[in-house]
Amino acid sequence: MTSPDPRLPPIESAVIQSGLCYVSFAYDAARFINLGEAERRIHQATERPTIAHKRRTPSSFEYQPPPLRTSHDTKPFAVGRYVSRSSVDLMIYDFGSVSVIYTLPIDGPFQDLLVLSEELYDNEALLADSRLRVDQLLSVIGDAARRSHPSPVVEDYVIFHVERFAETIELNQFCAQHAQQIAQILRAERQELSAQEVDDALAVQLSYGANDITLVDWDAALIVDSERDDVRALLEFANVELLEMRYVDQKLDRALDQAHETLARRSWSLPWFFGSYGADLRSLAELQVDNATLFEGVNNTLKLVGDQYLARVYRMVNRRFHLDEWDQSILRKLQTLESIYEKISDQASTRRMEILEWVIIFLIAFSIALEFI
Asked: How many CB atoms lie within 10 A of CB 125?
């Protein structure tokens, strides 16, 4: 670790002049949301956001399709000495996810972010309010949300965006000297962390220019830059993507349990139940299609083509969130589900052939008996 530079101001004197803290809660609210119909039903101001291009980037770097953003007035929430803004943003995605985002202006001593981080960890007030916001949204948009349901999982994420410090700070040296305190902020942990834990918390660091830095951890991120809305948008979408990966994985676990039960039950059942496999096969086929469609929809929503820095950010976030591992797990389970479907289908075909053979035998025996009669 870099030795302290005496010219660097101590963390106690590092004062945030202006910044924002974003707290997002992601929910899976429906199987599919018709964004056009939802927009018509929401009576408040809405907009289709695009990622703000601060550098020269091609127009192909966009959401496909763009999510729907709507803002709602709300009472400010006090979190320690900080107070949230009197509005909350809802990001609605066509694959059924809704992200509720609260914004808290931050200023003052940098070390105070540790208290804020602890207060935001599993914050019951914000969690309850975000669930209420999603329920209210679903009641407003009605059948524009197909197969809406309470979300069994929620993914929360905190982004500390420091726009500027009160005095000039050399960021790389600052992060190296105060790695322990920054890691505690990212991990919402007051006790001193081990050197290995600190290294892990600060493992994902990226900079575009000499005066900016982004540190990404599992539950929180720290951005120090005057302009970094594009990175923040990526982090918020990655949080939604992680939610959907968890949700699809849980659905596939239940589908596999159901499929194994079906296969085991059919292994000893009598073969003379005509059409008894149809419902099971249809159910498995629907599970396959639903999960595969949701999986593809999430992975194909955001296109990063042409912007090398944001593509690098996304690769690093992907590694930190273990999204590749989730993808591989889901693909394996989809393949297993397909294999079980084929086995049940083959079993159904075998039983049909057995039934036909028995029918033929019966007809032959009946014709012979009819001649004697």
From this structure: 11
String of b and e for 238-266 (b: at least 16 CB within 10 Å)?
bbbbbbbbbbbbebbeebbebbeebbeeb
Distance (Å, whole) CA 321 – CA 238: 8
Residue with tokens 């993808």: 327
Contacts of 318 (CB under 8 A, 6+ apart): 238, 324
Spell out the per-residue pLDDT of the chain, length 373, in tens. Answer: 444 444 444 545 689 999 999 999 999 998 889 988 888 888 654 566 655 544 433 343 466 778 888 888 889 999 989 999 999 999 999 888 999 999 999 999 999 999 999 999 989 999 999 999 999 999 989 889 988 888 888 999 999 999 999 888 888 888 888 899 999 999 999 899 999 999 999 999 988 888 889 999 999 999 999 877 888 888 998 899 889 888 888 888 887 777 777 666 654 444 434 445 555 666 666 666 666 666 665 666 666 555 678 888 888 888 898 888 888 888 888 778 777 767 777 666 777 777 788 888 888 888 888 777 7
Task: Please give the distance of CA 333 from its chain centroid, rounded to a whole number.
Answer: 19
Phi and psi angles of residue 109, each rounded to the nearest 5 degrees, phi first:
-55, 135
Burial of 300 (0-12, 13-18, 19+ CB in 10 A): exposed
Query: What is the rounded radius of gyration, in angstroms, for the C-alpha atoms of the chain?
Result: 27
* Cβ atoms of residues 69 and 89 within 8 Å: yes
Rounded to whole angstroms, the Cα distance separating 79 from 85 reads 11
